[in-house]
Amino acid sequence: MRILFIAARVPDPLTRGYEVRAWHQIRLLARRHRVTLVGYCVTPPRPAVLTHLRTLCDEVHAVPLGLLGMAEGAVRGLLSGRSLQTSIYDTPGMRRVLRRLLAERRHDVVHVQMARMATLLEGISSPPRVVDLIDALSVNMARRRLLDRSLTRWVASLEQARLAAQERHLCATWDRALVASEVDRRAIGDFPRLVVNSNAVDLAHFVRRDDPRREHDIVFSGNLGYFPNVDGVVWLAREVLPRVRAAIPDATLTVVGARPARAVRELAALGAHVEVLGEVPDVAPYIGRASVAVAPLRAGSGQALKVLEAMACGTPVVATSRAAEGLDARDGVHLRVADGAAPFADAVVRLLRDREAARQLADEAYRLVAARYGWSTPVAALESIYATIAGNPCGSSGS
Q1: Distance CA 256, CA 248 (A)
Q2: What is the pTM (predicted TM-score) of this model?
Q3: pLDDT digits (tens, 9 = 90+) for 183-222
Q4: Which helix (H) or strand (E) element contains residue 178?
Q5: Residue 183: strand, helix, or coil
Q6: Dihedral, 240, 145, 65, 57 alpha carbons, nearest 10
Q7: Edge-to-edge strands, sheet with 194-196
Q8: Under a CB-based contact definition with an 8 Å cutoff, are residues 148 and 227 in contact?
Q9: Distance between CA atoms of 295 and 290, rounded to whole angstroms?
């Protein structure tokens, strides 16, 4: 098949969940199909990454996205009634590239990542179109509105209704719409064309370690500029960690991830027991060396990649019910689920103190991700979806 893959961002660096998802989809699809990749970039992709992408794809088009253009799009969104995200990412430059590609060559299917990119194909119904919503972003905004105390709370309230209407429209009119979990599918609505296509984890990269773990070390990993992560780790450090340290005085917290917000950076002032490393070359070693991995999310939507990554590393996980939703993981079997500062701290303390219980939990979690959450499974399902709407066999590579 010939696939036109329109990514929200050219996947470099892989600091956001949707970039990770796009990278693994492209990587595996390109083994059997001819992929043309188009995506935005705020800064030019690194030459080595661009070269590698070009070995996978027939063509790679990185379309610049400047701050001025994003600001102009935001103003248009406020005036038009469209979601701000849609308006920000609807640029003349991207529309020109897509019109040219669609006019010059035949594609069997168009894959568009995220609702905010779907407007770029307004008025185009051929070739068949798939929109990967990934999660119910309207739900994400609704949860943010309840927790955010900054001016962006107003933006989240505005976006919630607009995105909900857009999600329903896409699910009713596009050939297929995808979300990562059943929870997100139910939140959007019962649309026959809306199907679940799960997230996964790179089992060759996030691997179990035999090295001794850092005793009583708790790790939080993720995009540290993303509101649900910022809210979660600040709550963890300020409300949960003091309770953990009251029981285990030498407990420490390591925070790793790109783009740390100011509120995250300020956590280092709490003391030497909080280490805010920010962006590191690879988060896997930090997850793999910790005694416990935490996912204290109170906002957001979709599947938490940080949970799958920790499970693949053999690190026991404590998560809120929000972070655990959408995963086929059971409380007390594959992870510990706790909400509220005191219950969350108690769950962490129990795993730090009981190494055998922690090991058993980690073993069951590892077996789960190894069996169910490798990237080959959802990408094979994605190929089947393409074949169904395009009328081509999955094995066809096009010509």
Answers
A1: 22
A2: 0.93
A3: 999 999 999 999 999 999 999 999 998 788 999 999 999 9
A4: strand 176-179
A5: helix
A6: 70
A7: 59-64, 34-41, 2-7, 109-113, 129-134, 176-179, 194-196
A8: yes
A9: 13
Kindly state the tokens that stand for 320: 């809120």
Strand partners for 274? 253
Give whole-number Cα distances, 16 to 13, 150, 197, 223, 248, in Å: 8, 22, 18, 6, 33
Residue type present at position 3: I
Which tokens sit at 49? 């990454």
121 DSSP 8-state letter: G
Strands 194-196 and 59-64: unpaired
Residue 300 and residue 210: Cα distance in Å, rounded?
A: 33
Helix (H, G, I), strand (E, B) or coil at 222: coil
Give per-residue pLDDT as tens, 40-67.
Answer: 998 889 999 999 999 999 999 999 987 7
- For residues 18 and 374, give the distance between their C-alpha atoms in angstroms, rounded to a whole number: 16
Cis peptide bond N-terminal to 45, omega within 30: no
For the chain, the structural domain boundaries read: 2-200+375-390, 217-372
Q: Which CATH class is domain 217-372?
A: alpha beta
What DSSP string runs through 288-343? HH-SEEEE--SS--S--HHHHHHHHTT--EEE-HHHHTTS---BTTTBEE--SHHH
CATH superfamily label, 2-200+375-390: Glycogen Phosphorylase B; (3.40.50.2000)
Question: Are domains 2-200+375-390 and 217-372 of this chain identical in fold?
Answer: yes
